Amino acid sequence: MPKDFIVTIDMGGTKQLACVINSSDGIVARVKQSTDPQSTEREYIKSIAKITKDVIKSSSVGKENIKAVCLGMAGSVNPYKGTIYLAPNLGLKNFNIKKMLENEINYPVLVENDVNLAALGIKNFEVDKSSKNLLAIFVGTGIGGGLILNGELYRGSNFVAGEIGHILVKKDGAVCGCGKRGCFETIASRTAITNKIISDVKNGKESSLAKMIEAGEIIKSKSLAKAVKDDDQLVTGHIIDACDVIGGVLASVTNLLN
User: Fold this and answer.
1) What are the E-state strand segments in 23-165?
2) Partners of residue 146 on adjacent β-strands
3) How far apart are CA 194 and CA 224, in angstroms?
4) Where in the sequence is the domain holding 150, given as residue range(s)?
């Protein structure tokens, strides 16, 4: 078997998703595990090493056929040095994850912002090949953005171009993980939506998610989707409110770029 497979890892604020993939076969194995956002740097390295080992083991690809590991991280990342400048949802700052991870797993490691990688994937596989400009937005634990301009990934001079989640939307609003107040993601991310739902339920409002909230379970996107499908008015209302904010921000960004 040719040595042309890579392990790709999406390192999110609540979960890690790893795949073994190449250009001809696509995804040949997939493994998911939870992320503990309170982890230390060393604990993150051990966690990433574990999921790397697990996904290779679950595939039919021998470890000698893995060419590299590509790590997508939320936050500002210097891909040339492999340094995470700031990943607020993971509690990481000025951390050279590339060097430490390479020492741990003995594979070359590429590090890039997760939504930048997603934007490249959309450009290469999901839109018309003639499209040279796009803005990819992903809503999850936070809100991230990736910019493709004139066919090339645009990172900005400080590697934070496209970080739409930290646009100021509400002056003196909730404190963001980045340290500022009123950022876009404090209002319209899945985390923001679920926090509002939890607060309302604890204050006596009805929701199909009440039992999950009382049990202290994490509310994931699929739980929100099911609640909307089940006509949960509380959940639906908060999602509509978030969509209104998202639409307004995207309209402004469209005017800026277009």
Assistant:
1) 26-34, 66-73, 76-78, 83-87, 92-96, 109-113, 134-139, 143-149, 152-154
2) 136
3) 8
4) 131-257
Number of domains in the chain: 2
Kindly state whether residues 87 and 179 are assigned to the same domain.
Answer: no
Query: Which residue reads 């499908």 in tokens?
Result: 229
The pLDDT, as a whole number, for residue 130 is 83
Indicate the pTM of the whole model.
Answer: 0.86
Q: Which helix (H) or strand (E) holds 105?
A: helix 97-105
128 DSSP assignment? -
Q: Is 144 helix (H, G, I), strand (E, B) or coil?
A: strand
Neighbours of 132 (CB within 10 A): 12
pLDDT digits (tens, 9 = 90+) for 159-205: 989 889 999 999 999 999 888 999 999 999 999 999 999 999 999 99
pLDDT at position 187 is 97
Neighbours of 118 (CB within 10 A): 19
CATH code for position 98: 3.30.420.40
Question: Quick check: is 184 in a domain?
Answer: yes
| pLDDT in the model for residue 189 | 96
